[in-house]
Amino acid sequence: MSDKVIQVLQPVYGEEEAAAVAEVLRTGWVGLGPKTRAFEEEFAKYVGCDYVVGLNSGTAALHLAALALQLQPGDEVIVTPITFVSTVHVIRYCGATPVFADVEPDTLNLDAADVARKITDRTRAIFCVHYSGHPCDMAALHSLAEPRGLYVVEDAAHACGAEYKGAKIGSTSELTCFSFHAVKNLAMGEGGAITCNSDWYARYFTQMRWLGISRDTFSRSSEEKVYAWQYWVERLGYKYHLHDISAAIGLVQLQKLEANNARRREMVGRYQEAFADLEWLERPVEKEYAKSSWHLYVVKLPTQRDRDAMIRHLKALDIAPGVHYYPINLHPVYKDIKSEVPVTNAIWKRILTLPLHLGLTPEDQNRVIEAVRSFPVGAAC
Ligand SMILES: Cc1ncc(COP(=O)(O)O)c(C=O)c1O
Q1: pLDDT given at position 214
Q2: Atom 7 of ligand 1, residue of closest alpha carbon
């Protein structure tokens, strides 16, 4: 057996990122400054949107999106339960009520038919997640939202570089939230951004990420001959801004993103081919409208018993799989919400995330493939 544990997700940075950080440290400006601005401009060009506001996490992006919609107690927001908890917490931060809609059994994305069933006269918004990097059926969600005046917020934490009908995710709704956390497709350590096409939203997010202050320190230093000390606090904002150390890493990662996503796609192709004859293993799909960014490679086992036995089997072979996610509606903090999500409640028991990241060598992948293929399905006890 190898002494190397193969992780399900793993951060991978190169010398270029290290050099970019060193350069920022040498300039002496490490806060919100020129690298943040450059990243925002480059990411807007890449995604094809008018504005990008750089933030310190995907959670901050989702929170500011929820605040911009002025969600308040009494409002309902329809949201997927198969996500990281941030997507749902931010609804509660505003005092609004999350309403869980079920997921499609193949993509695990929000099921538009169930969203339609969950809409009431209190519904204000739909928060969808492009699970594992596979874009949601945005036409179906927008066709529900638009006639009713509902907002659609996309959680694109997994979907950096993904495309919906040929358009990059980040350009297809009013507000899209990205995470650049350490293991994401575009990774900065910690970071996030919100993309939009409205000047009002962009100005709102720019103030809200900097405690509601009218002009950030960099503007006051760079646009005036002498540092302009005066500022006004116009909103009750947060300290959510992206800073230049992370942004410098992000600029390098952005240059690599297309190639890195192509490598992920190649690795997924190998898995798909290697598991094609395993009738007991359900492989992930890619719908005709979607180009996935393949953040996660998620398979389904026939039963929870098999899934849990597969986890033990892989761990014994020094392979660390994951489960994305234990449904949010089942967590103690959300137990008070009555939710009818039968597909979610059944399917999470069968899902398993196999290792997929840029540190995975062809030999590592062979080990994962052999381990999965050697699993004695049905023999679980
Ligand atoms: C689907 C989803 N939404 C939101 C987030 C939150 O992003 P961050 O960790 O940058 O706050 C994550 C991060 O794991 C995520 O996977």
Answers
A1: 81
A2: 58
